[in-house]
Amino acid sequence: MGFDQYHEPPDELPEETRTFARLCASLTEEAEAIGWYQQRLALERDPEARAVMADAVGEEYKHFSMDLEFLLRRTPIWREIARGVLFQDGDIVEHGEAAEAAAGDEGDGGGGTEGTSGDGSLGIGSLLGKGRS
Ligand SMILES: [Fe+2]
């Protein structure tokens, strides 16, 4: 049994950090599975086998997306940056740079696992030390 998702002693980590690490590990595993299915589908010629694998990779897309959504909900600044990058047309790198700049890059890097603030905002304003509406 492996506990590779922990980089620090697990018994010293808060429960929510252990949960977060588990979902990060799961996200990685889903991404690996997607990559493996892409390779298999690129080579497989049997239509029935391709249909089975195409169905399976759809499950992996779903799993990856659910893992990502969980992690983004628990990390407001990550969610804010992702909001500026995901599902946008145009230059991915430019969107990434702009989203990072808009969210700020101070403090602990936003790596906390706090949820949304009580007022329903993402809490980015408090991370930047200034109010936002
Ligand atoms: Fe999966």
List the helices and strands and how they pair.
Elements: H1 15-43, H2 47-74, H3 76-85, H4 92-103, H5 124-128
This protein binds fe (ii) ion.
Describe this structure as you would to a colleague.
The protein is an all-alpha fold and 133 residues long. 63% of the residues lie in helices and 0% in strands. The protein is flat and about 50 Å long. Bound molecules: fe (ii) ion.
Give a quick summary of the entry:
By secondary structure, the protein is mainly alpha-helical. The protein is built from 5 helices and no strands.
Features:
5 helices; mainly alpha; about 130 residues; binds fe (ii) ion; single chain; flat
Distance between the termini: 47 Å
Helix-strand makeup class: mainly alpha
Shape label? flat
Cofactors, ions, other ligands: fe (ii) ion
Q: Return the string of H and E elements.
A: HHHHH
- Total helices: the number is 5
Strand content: under 5%
The number of strands is 0
